[in-house]
Fold these 3 entries.
Entry 1:
Amino acid sequence: MDFKRIEIIFLCAFLTLNIFLLTTFKQGNGKDAQRQMNSQSTIESRLKKDKITYQQDFSERKHGGYYLSGETTYFKKDNETLDVKVGESGPGKLPVSDDPKKDIEIFLKNNNRVTNFEDYQYYLKAASTPERKIMAQGFEEVPFFDETAMLEMEVTEADKSYHSFGKFTQSHIDNIEPLREKQEAVSEKEAIETLYIANKIPYEGKIKETLLGYSKIFTVRGKNVYIPTWFVWLEDEKKNSRVERVNAFANTVFTANISDVKESE
């Protein structure tokens, strides 16, 4: 790829990113009045009034993060090129401990079927289930929670003493780098307030889990662009679950679909 082509790619990424920032800035301004109207009461008291339960106090810690770019890793299978690899983890049993992350890391080190296994450093507890364990890539202690950078492993528990891993699904990104300087992200508490104001938390519902992670916002010329995002697992009074996302820079609820910026002919 020559220098002019690289220059065009980054120009497209820059323009697309700024359009995204302008949109989220306008959305954020639209919520300012609502925040001021509700400033007299705490989020905890409002949740209690609406009979919304949660497990622990919400953190007010301000995290840092980046706009990141990354390239999809393509796996080879016979004569095919795949962006998602599906395979069998192979035989073997692993004793169960109180640390699922450690269990999986030990298994991966002893199994060569997962490509770049050492890059999956984060166990996504909130997204995992007894039947499915999820590991993810990360950047500076913040995981990716995105279908482009995850390892999902099927688990068969023959009994409570060991795991037997079955099929796995793997996606991976490479050449991860910041597009801008590090910025401050909103706290967990601010993200919950934003969801409450936007009427995204159901009455008599439950806030089950939260996670700060990177999610993809668009793709330009083969490069994915990611942003810090608060993921919040919610459950309504009928036990129906869903996940809401909050832009951790703009403090706005995600509503737009991910877009691809195509290269012109």
Note: The longest strand covers residues 206-220.
Entry 2:
Amino acid sequence: MNSGDDTRPRVEGHHARLRVLHVSWPVQRPERSRGWWAVDATTSANANVAVYSTFAGVGFFAGSINNILGPKLTLFIGSMGYALYVGSYLATNIHPHAGAFEITAGAILGCCAGLLWTAQGSLMMAYPTENQKGRFVGIFWAIFNLGGVVGASVSLGQNFHSTTNSVSNGTYIGFLVLTVIGVGIPMFMADPKKMIRTDGTKVVAPRQPSWKTEIYGLYLALKTDPMIILLFPMFFASNWFTTYQFNDYNAALFNIRTRSLNNLLYWLAQIIGSLAIAVLLDQPRFTRRFRAFAGWTVLFFTVFAAHIWGYFYQKQYTRATIPEDSQKLDMYDAPYIGRVWLYVLYGALDAMWQTTAYWMMGAMSNDPAKLAYFAGFYKSIQSAGAAGVWRADAVKLPYMNIFLSTWTLLVGGLVFALPMIYLRVTNHTEEADETIANMDLNQHPGTVEAVKAA
């Protein structure tokens, strides 16, 4: 097999994975941004509690499920919940008392999303070489947010001439069609077992021996790499802030067409933010350890810049001063400009946070099986935090309390991540790390030599 043949499966597999996410994620956005979709804010928040509660439960074990079923089937099953979820929006838009269906659909989506995100995350971190991991994460996050750009553009086009606070049925129907199309796309993805990295090394595919072995592998991943626990606070914070940004800032302050424009700009900012931080994290002029500290520093200053700015806006309103049925801020109003630029910064920060978190996990291992566990930990703990903050929003906790909790958790996540970077991130990953993927039926990890001989 020549070098062209070796690299073709890798490229096809990478882009096929990105295509499924590109089609599926315009409608994945409701999972994270219910504020501008919702008929009723309380039902919206409770549905998100359902999403993230089941997401957290399934996500913790999703790495084991992915290693048994394989990423293609895991992605296929994981993408099924989104159409049902979008359908629940349409149902509640037509029948406002269908909130129970919306919450149930959210619980089902959480199970599916746990599988989808874990499979995606493990491949995204395992396919690239060590000096390409930031680029791969950045490219994924950019294409992922192209889905958000499409979604926000459709909503803006549908609602541009409306100054109300509601979304049309046509908007939901458009997204429903896109989700249904996206369900089957993972089955066209190239077989990960055939992937060859650009440096000629083989991607080690899990042997998928048994459920017992997979559960042991989950334990082994924590035992052999306990430093991952220091990233758990960073994981916990990684979706906490979206509740404030979407429900307590965007939905609270702006009318529907302005929210749609804001989200278009937010997703564009995410594309820029993810690619910008990816360039830094893969900068060949610096060692990997230096890049890790540099990425941490950029996040630290961006967190403080965004939240010092946001604090001065948050002081100006409460739940009592802007009830849900009040007149909202429009894009042509004078106070809009400063507030939308803050929202753009929030979007860039979100992308940089997620990209850096994935990059840090990727810097700890090249083993797809271990990375599947890490991705599962990430999405599980992230979702546990999101479930908590969406519940806090549902019971009408003051906006300022949620804002300050967001700021505190982001800073705390960075503080805990710093010793992990110092103690665990090296300039190169040892080959001996790629062992969990080849554990045999007797729960004995395989050797690198055995992997290369396979």
Note: Confidence is low (pLDDT under 50) at residues 1-30, 447-454.
Entry 3:
Amino acid sequence: MNPILIKDRVEAALPGSRCFVQDFTGEGNHFEIRIVSASFSGKSLVQRHQEIYALFQKELASNEIHALSLLTVTPEEIGEENSKSE
């Protein structure tokens, strides 16, 4: 799967989010996805990951995507709110 398609799908599902995708193997089936989204506020790590895995359920089931490594954070968790006010 193309990293740009992954990025587009995540950003469409989570408006206002920022998504960074890296293909670990160059074969299009092992990805690291880093997502910054205010929509993760109040959600556990498990809930956040379930939300993202659900976006790729078909690709994971068919093995088009073999593995996803996720980093899911809110802007507050990475200090973006503090850096904007400086």
Note: The chain has one domain: 3-84.
